[in-house]
Design brief:
Layout: E1 35-40, H1 43-54, E2 59-62, E3 65-69, E4 74-79, H2 83-86, E5 100-104, H3 108-115, E6 128-129, E7 134-140, E8 146-152, H4 155-161
Parallel strand pairs: 1-4, 5-8
Antiparallel strand pairs: 2-3, 3-4, 6-7, 7-8
């Protein structure tokens, strides 16, 4: 293997630690994740869902774009009409099967008792404790995107997510 091979020195536990990678520790201006954007055919429908999910209110720029801000980031919701501004057909609504939108909540079991009033698609049925120490409830939003509500329960997870 030569030094430009992308598999050179890859650490399976930390795959970004390989030759030719620029990690935040070495970059002069590291990237900062500030928002996730969902593209949809029905902005209003998703805004209602995520307002209920977060307990917040959306800020509407226009009928094609709204944002819900939390203390750690922003969930942007854009109409399919906005896609062409980036590149035609670069994103399609309701086709995600690889991303999970996650929300840290105070008590996922309490949320589970309330969420049935505004969500009908439960993926894991009821909150489940994961091996990494979070108690999680996985649902789908009206477009089919996976949404995980979780509460840290192990000492390690509680420490990681203490706010």
């Amino acid at each position: 293997m030569n030094s430009t091979d992308s598999t050179d020195s890859v650490n399976p536990v930390n795959p970004v630690n390989h030759v030719n990678s620029a990690t935040p520790a070495t970059r002069a201006n590291p990237a900062n994740l500030v928002s996730i954007r969902i593209i949809t055919d029905d902005v209003a429908r998703l805004v209602v869902f995520y307002e209920k999910a977060t307990g917040g209110r959306a800020a509407w720029a226009n009928e094609d774009f709204a944002e819900l801000s939390t203390t750690s980031g922003t969930l942007a919701i854009g109409s399919t009409r906005t896609v062409a501004l980036f590149a035609p057909d670069s994103a399609r609504p309701a086709e995600n099967r690889s991303v999970i939108i996650e929300f840290l909540v105070d008590d996922v079991d309490v949320l589970f008792r309330e969420v049935g009033a505004w969500c009908t698609d439960f993926v894991n049925g009821e909150p489940t404790t994961m091996p990494w120490g979070n108690r999680s409830l996985l649902v789908r939003d009206p477009d089919g995107n996976l949404v995980n509500f979780f509460t840290p329960v192990s000492p390690e997870a509680i420490k990681k997510f203490s706010r």
